[in-house]
Amino acid sequence: MLSRPAEAATPMQRLADRPELLDGPLEDVVALRGNLRDLRRVNRWLGGSALSRSALIALATGFHRDPRVGHLDWRERPITMLDVGTGSADIPVALVRWTDARGMHLEVEAIDVRHEIVDVAREVTAGVGAVKLEVADGPPLPYPDHAFDVAHMSLVAHHLEPNELEALLREMGRVSRVGVIVNDLERGRLAWLGAWLLARLLTRNRLTRHDAPLSVRRAYRAPELAQIAARVGLLEVSRTRGFLGHRYAIAFVHGVRGPSARDFSHGSSP
Prior knowledge:
The chain is α/β, with parallel strands linked by helices. The chain has a single domain (about 30-265), classed as 3-Layer(aba) Sandwich (Rossmann fold), CATH 3.40.50.150. About 40% of the residues lie in helices and about 20% in strands. The protein contains nine helices and eight strands. It has helices at about 5-10, 30-45, 50-60, 90-100, 115-125, 160-175, 190-200, 205-220, 220-230, and strands at about 80-85, 105-110, 130-135, 150-155, 175-185, 235-240, 245-255, 265. Strands 3-2-1-4-5-7-6-8 form an eight-stranded mixed β-sheet, sandwiched between helices. Strand 6 (about 235-240) and strand 7 form a beta hairpin. The protein is globular and about 45 Å long.
């Protein structure tokens, strides 16, 4: 029987200290707008928003079996969320519309460190009063302890080195009452190939073509991210994967030691 080459059996190592173009100067406004438009398409077509929704349901309803989590009655009062590194704020908009359609209410404070990005987000969120945008940086996050029910970030973690990610997760835990949601890419060779191909089929945008495959190389595998979160007292209670296995959303709570996290395929959550 033929064995696989050793290289093929070796997991893809994380590529550190190589920034994406989106992390550099954003002087080309046309390219930036195109890149953010591409990210909105990916979130919509490949289920990025749905992953965050599943994690929010886990925190709000407690479907993961631990009775101490999920005490929010989101039909009686608004749920408040901080979205860190919001980009176009398309995921907050999608979550607000989803909750509104079901007689619930979600209020989101969406922040990004780059004013150029927030300018684009203001256009995307026009008419959605439940999403408030601010230019803000962190850590430290400019909010008091327990200011929000949930702190959320999507496609942010892979931009950070482990010590930076740990510091941000600690702050997100500090400002949240119930828990933290992290939605990000899963590092792997198939995911890298998919990102490379999609970037060339989807767009000619130079930022997208450069950053998409690099984002996968810089991403944390879900167990790696959970380990970093555990160091700051955040414990995983649910994990949802995209239908292609390329992305995940993890819901964390504050030091609640319940059953082992379950790994749900996309669409299996309530």
